[in-house]
Write a structure and sequence with these properties.
mainly beta, 48% strand, 421 residues, 7 helices, single chain, 14-stranded mixed sheet
C-alpha cells in the first residue's frame, strides 16, 4: 500500500499543481476583475469638529461639485454595486494645514468583506477656514403663494418668531441682506389661518443663499406665519365739497372723482358700518382758480378705523374741479345718451370712441343751475345710406335762457347687418 501511494509521486504533485493553476484560470475567466465608474457622487464632510472646536468654521472654495468614483473588483461583486450605495467623504481631520486641501475617500456600503477598491476623482477638496460670527436678523414674509376667494383679501400678516439668530462664517453672515419666511402655497382662503413657512436667505444681489454651512436658533419649531383674511367691499367716493373761492368772475360748478368707487377691506362688522368713503372739503382747495383743474388726493387718511384698501386699489384718486366763468357751464355727456334717428334698417351703428362729449353752454345762472341734457342729444342719419365711417354733428335741444356755444361732432361706424336666411 505504501508503495502505491508513493509510486509516481512527482507526477502526482505536478498534476495537483496543474489542477490548482487550471482552476484559478477558469475562475478568472468566468469571473474576471473589472472596474466601473460612477459619476455625480455627492461628497460629505466628516470630522468637522476638528475645525469647529477651535471656534472657527469651514466652507468650500467655489461651488460644491460631485465626484467620480471608480470601483474595482470581481464582476460578480460589481453587479451588486449601485451609485446610491457609494459614499464619498472628505475627512477634515486629514486636511493639509498649508494648502487646506481635504482628501476624499469612498466606500461601497453593503459589500463589507468583499474585495473591492475605490478611486475618487478629483481626489480632494479645497476649503477655507474662517472665524465664526453670529447675527440677529428680522424676518419678513413672502405671501406670493397665497390666494383668497373672491370678495376676500389678505390683511395683517405676522411671522413667528419675528427675529432669528444665524451663525456661520464671517463673510457669509456679512453677505446676508434679508431673511424671508416663504409661506407654503395656500389657495382660496376665506378665513384667518396659520401657515408653515420656509426660511430663505437673500444676499445683496437678491440671490438665494446656501444655508448648509449655517446654523440658526429655530430648532424644531420652525417658522409659522399668521395670515388675517378680511372681506372686501366696493363703496363710492364722496366729495363733501371744496374749500376756498374761485377768482372773481368765475364760479365752481362741481367736481368728479376718478375712480368714483373704491375697493376696501376689513372685518364684516367694520364693513357694515361703511357706505362710502368721505373726502372732506379741506382736501381740495379752489382758492383763486380760473379753470378746470385735476387734484390728486390720498384717501388713506380718510379711511375709517379698521378699514384698509384692497391690495389692488390705489390710495390716490383724481378729483377734477370744474371752474368756469360766470354765465357758462360745461357738461360731459356719454355717447350712449345720444338718440339715433333715421338709421337705415339694413345698417347697424357703433361709435368710434366711447369717450364722453363735452358741451359748453352760456346763459343765466338760474337756467344753467337746472340745466339737464341727459335726453337732449341726437343725431340724424337720414342722409347716411351706406356702410362707412362718418363724422356727424350732434344736435342738442336747449331750454329757454341757455345757449350751446358749439355743436359737437362724433365719429360713427356704419356696417351692414348680417341677415340669417
Amino acid at each position: 500500500m505504501k508503495f502505491k501511494i508513493t509510486r509516481n509521486l512527482g507526477l502526482k504533485i505536478a498534476a495537483l499543481i496543474f489542477s490548482v493553476f487550471f482552476w484559478i484560470i477558469v475562475i478568472n475567466i468566468n469571473d474576471p476583475v473589472d472596474n466601473v465608474t460612477y459619476a455625480n457622487i455627492p461628497v460629505e464632510f466628516i470630522n468637522g469638529e476638528v475645525v469647529t472646536n477651535k471656534g472657527k468654521t469651514y466652507d468650500l472654495v467655489g461651488e460644491q461639485q460631485p465626484v467620480r468614483v471608480t470601483v474595482s473588483g470581481k464582476r460578480s461583486v460589481l453587479s451588486k454595486v449601485r451609485s446610491s450605495n457609494i459614499v464619498a467623504t472628505a475627512d477634515l481631520s486629514q486636511m493639509e494645514v498649508n494648502t487646506y486641501l481635504v482628501p476624499i475617500s469612498a466606500e461601497v456600503r453593503g459589500l463589507e468583506g468583499e474585495n473591492v477598491t475605490t478611486q475618487v476623482s478629483p481626489g480632494n477638496l479645497e476649503v477655507k477656514i474662517e472665524a465664526t460670527d453670529k447675527h440677529t436678523f428680522p424676518i419678513s414674509v413672502n405671501t406670493s403663494n397665497i390666494t383668497t376667494r373672491n370678495g376676500y383679501a389678505i390683511g395683517e400678516v405676522s411671522v413667528n418668531p419675528e427675529m432669528i439668530s444665524i451663525s456661520g462664517a464671517e463673510s457669509t453672515i456679512r453677505n446676508i441682506h434679508r431673511v424671508v419666511a416663504k409661506v407654503d402655497a395656500a389657495n382660496g382662503l376665506s378665513e384667518s389661518t396659520t401657515l408653515s413657512a420656509e426660511l430663505v436667505l437673500h444676499d445683496g444681489n437678491d440671490n438665494v443663499m446656501d444655508q448648509s454651512q449655517l446654523t440658526n436658533n429655530l430648532g424644531e419649531r420652525g417658522l409659522s406665519v399668521n395670515v388675517q383674511i378680511l372681506r372686501e367691499k366696493t363703496v363710492p367716493l364722496r366729495i363733501n365739497g371744496v374749500s376756498g373761492n374761485p377768482a372773481e368772475g368765475y364760479i365752481y360748478n362741481g367736481c368728479t372723482t376718478e375712480p368714483s368707487r373704491i375697493v376696501i377691506c376689513g372685518t364684516k362688522e367694520a364693513l357694515d358700518e361703511v357706505s362710502a368713503i368721505e373726502i372732506p372739503d379741506s382736501a381740495v382747495s379752489i382758492e383763486g382758480k380760473q379753470a378746470r383743474e385735476e387734484v390728486t388726493v390720498d384717501v388713506l387718511p380718510y379711511l375709517p378705523e379698521g378699514i384698509s384698501l384692497s391690495a389692488n386699489a390705489s390710495n390716490n384718486v383724481v378729483v377734477t374741479v370744474i371752474i368756469e366763468q360766470e354765465g357758462r357751464k360745461t357738461i360731459e355727456l356719454p355717447v350712449g345718451a345720444i338718440q339715433i334717428n333715421n338709421l337705415k334698417e339694413d345698417l347697424k351703428l357703433s361709435f368710434e370712441s366711447d369717450l364722453d362729449i363735452e358741451l359748453q353752454f352760456t346763459g343765466t345762472e338760474e337756467a344753467l343751475d337746472v340745466l339737464d341734457v341727459r335726453y337732449a342729444a341726437s343725431i340724424d342719419l337720414k342722409n347716411y345710406k351706406t356702410a362707412g365711417t362718418y363724422e356727424v354733428t350732434v344736435n342738442i335741444e336747449t331750454p329757454s335762457g341757455v345757449e350751446l356755444m358749439k355743436n359737437p361732432t362724433v365719429k360713427i361706424i356704419l356696417t351692414e347687418k348680417d341677415f340669417v336666411a
